[in-house]
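Q: Given only this backbone (340 positions), what sequence would you predict?
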């Protein structure tokens, strides 16, 4: 069995054919898509976070709105760039959104990806300390975030407060019990996957990773997941971790599907540089009739290793078309693989 979620990049633009021409279109359609996805049996609604881009940059209002409109579906991110975050304020936002959703948040965080602007986190008021890289700063912010999520008091109370305080030092509010165990780290390398396991975070592995061996993408990703699980056991955590992988999967059910995505299935893995010194391998997309898709996906080693599969969606094609794609996976592909 697999949990099936969708992952939206939340694009909007006035381009010809776009159903999301404004930020309002994308935000409101994201809520509606989550509502409809829950109805057809999708397990998770996840959203990318990018700043200075015509994409979703402020996730917590959206996550809270989806939480208020749904009752079962997991609601998450993939991922929040911790270089930009005030971890204490983020704890308050996350706690509020999780309480509204009834404990369904699954927050993916990470050091971030290439940006639209140069060192965008500087505009948000953040600077690495002496000897730190921006990636180090992101991990430092993440460690503070994880600590504060535990809900322990740390702040000295005012002896003459405006309102009565509980005894002892004060914690951040609102606190959502259990959210700490639902934090995921988006790892692009084997080393950061191991680091995430040692800290007790779940693992998100996307459609790219650092090319560390020259092997096919799904083989490298499967090895990353195995290293993560080994590190989890060595760390002595008492519960089982969650692991997700992302894939572009398009069942070709009709002429419209073939028009949009019929060519995608002919492409294989690719290799490129996303930063000056970061050579990445990008996984292939899958596009075929359901029976062919099932055979192809059964050979993907990383999907076999993961418990959660996030389906990247073309959000600019609108709610109805994306429900059609997700429904095709749930009804016609997942049963052939034993996922439903």
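A: Predicted residues:
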């Amino acid at each position: 069995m697999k949990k099936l979620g969708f992952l939206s990049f939340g694009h909007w633009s006035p381009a010809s054919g776009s159903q999301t021409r404004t930020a309002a279109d994308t935000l409101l359609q994201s809520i509606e898509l989550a509502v409809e996805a829950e109805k057809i049996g999708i397990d998770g609604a996840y959203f990318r976070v990018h700043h200075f881009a015509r994409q979703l940059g402020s996730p917590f209002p959206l996550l809270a709105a989806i939480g208020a409109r749904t009752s079962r579906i997991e609601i998450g991110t993939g991922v929040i760039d911790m270089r930009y975050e005030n971890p204490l304020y983020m704890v308050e936002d996350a706690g509020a959104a999780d309480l509204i959703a009834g404990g369904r948040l699954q927050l993916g965080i990470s050091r971030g990806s290439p940006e639209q602007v140069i060192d965008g986190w500087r505009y948000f008021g953040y600077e690495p300390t002496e000897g730190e890289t921006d990636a180090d700063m992101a991990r430092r912010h993440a460690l503070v975030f994880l600590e504060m999520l535990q809900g322990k008091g740390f702040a000295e109370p005012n002896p003459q407060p405006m309102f009565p305080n509980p005894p002892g030092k004060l914690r951040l509010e609102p606190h959502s019990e259990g959210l700490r165990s639902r934090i995921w780290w988006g790892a692009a390398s084997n080393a950061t996957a191991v680091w995430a396991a040692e800290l007790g975070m779940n693992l998100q592995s996307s459609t790219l990773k650092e090319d560390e061996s020259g092997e096919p993408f799904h083989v490298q990703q499967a090895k990353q997941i195995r290293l993560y699980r080994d590190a989890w056991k060595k760390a002595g955590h008492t519960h089982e971790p969650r692991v997700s992988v992302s894939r572009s999967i398009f069942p070709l059910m009709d002429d419209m599907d073939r028009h949009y995505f019929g060519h995608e299935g002919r492409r294989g893995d690719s290799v490129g540089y996303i930063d000056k010194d970061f050579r990445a391998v990008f996984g292939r997309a899958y596009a075929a009739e359901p029976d062919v898709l099932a055979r192809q996906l059964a050979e993907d080693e990383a999907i076999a290793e993961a418990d959660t599969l996030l389906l990247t969606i073309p959000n600019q094609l609108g709610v109805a078309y994306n429900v059609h794609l997700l429904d095709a996976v749930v009804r016609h592909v997942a049963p052939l693989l034993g996922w439903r």
